[in-house]
Design a protein that fits this description.
Serine Threonine Protein Phosphatase 5, Tetratricopeptide repeat; elongated; 76% helix; 286 residues; mainly alpha; single chain
């Protein structure tokens, strides 16, 4: 018995180090071999489940969704955990399989009603169902239960905008930026929030600039900066931002330019007939 316990402990410790290095397959092989050798050692099953969960999460980040889902299913077979339920539900939400995702998330909440990632995933599901009030509540609960992540803040902000609760939306996105200043998506959303929630385009500029510093290919921030420069009559600066947009997505840039010129605001209006703008982006019908 002592020999078995000693070997199990050593392998689990070694696997923890292997796992931290991202060697998921190696960690899994060692644990499965250990499980075959000591099938009654209950502490092994949760470890196998954890390895499968983490490999699945890695595969999600790589876009290998079907493989990730298989990992999550196997993880649940070894040891049901809310983390695996929530992770698997997110893959189903992305594919529009909302009822299946709902079932998984309810199972996760039965295991742990205070699991933050489950509440965040539930918020994503509710956004798909356009139940924005419930979605906002779910994101708030995720934050309350310690799951503070950039995407949770961004989605909570979006939910409150949909509800036209602009003050709460703006408050949350600024809180998110303060906690995660290195998130380009939050910086960009904060800039947009200054416009949508506060009607203050001037204060939006530093956030859009921060998003671009963090991610030089952040398209929406680049285009917003181009529009702001054009509206203020700064021709060369507007052109520079637009050229950067064109290198990222030419069709989208030209479409947004045309959309702006047909809108009441016409931020690019001062340069609607400028030869250089027309050469790059096309003219506008009167």
């Amino acid at each position: 018995m002592a020999e078995r316990e000693g070997e199990v402990t050593r392998v689990i410790r070694r696997v923890a180090q292997t796992l931290d290095l991202g060697k998921y397959d190696q960690a899994l092989r060692e644990l499965l071999h250990l499980s075959e050798k000591y099938p009654d050692a209950g502490e092994i099953r949760p470890q196998i489940a954890e390895v499968l969960l983490r490999r699945g999460q890695f595969r999600v980040r790589k876009g290998r969704i079907s493989e990730a889902r298989a990992d999550f299913e196997r993880s649940l077979g070894w040891s049901p955990k809310p983390q695996a339920y929530a992770a698997m539900a997110e893959t189903l939400i992305a594919e529009g399989k909302l009822d299946e995702a709902d079932s998984l998330l309810n199972s996760a909440l039965e295991l742990d009603p205070q699991h933050g990632p489950t509440h965040a995933a539930m918020g994503m599901l509710l956004m798909k169902w356009e139940e924005y009030s419930e979605a906002a509540r779910a994101f708030e609960q995720a934050l309350e239960f310690g799951h503070a992540a950039p995407e949770v803040y961004r989605l909570a902000w979006e939910a409150y905008l949909r509800l036209e609760r602009y003050e709460r939306a703006h408050e949350l996105i600024l809180e998110g930026v303060e906690r995660f200043p290195g998130s380009d998506s939050l910086q960009a959303a904060a800039g947009d929030s200054c416009v949508y929630a506060k009607g203050d385009s001037a204060s939006a500029r530093p956030y859009w600039q921060a998003a671009v510093r963090l991610n030089p290919r952040h398209f929406t921030s680049l285009f917003s900066l181009a529009a702001q420069e054009a509206f203020q009559g700064r021709r060369e600066e507007a052109l520079d931002y637009l050229r950067r947009c064109l290198t990222i997505d030419r069709d989208r840039t030209q479409s947004l330019w045309q959309e702006d010129l047909h809108s009441p605001l016409r931020k690019f209006g001062p340069f609607a007939r400028d030869p250089e703008f027309i050469r790059l982006l096309g003219g506008v019908d009167d």
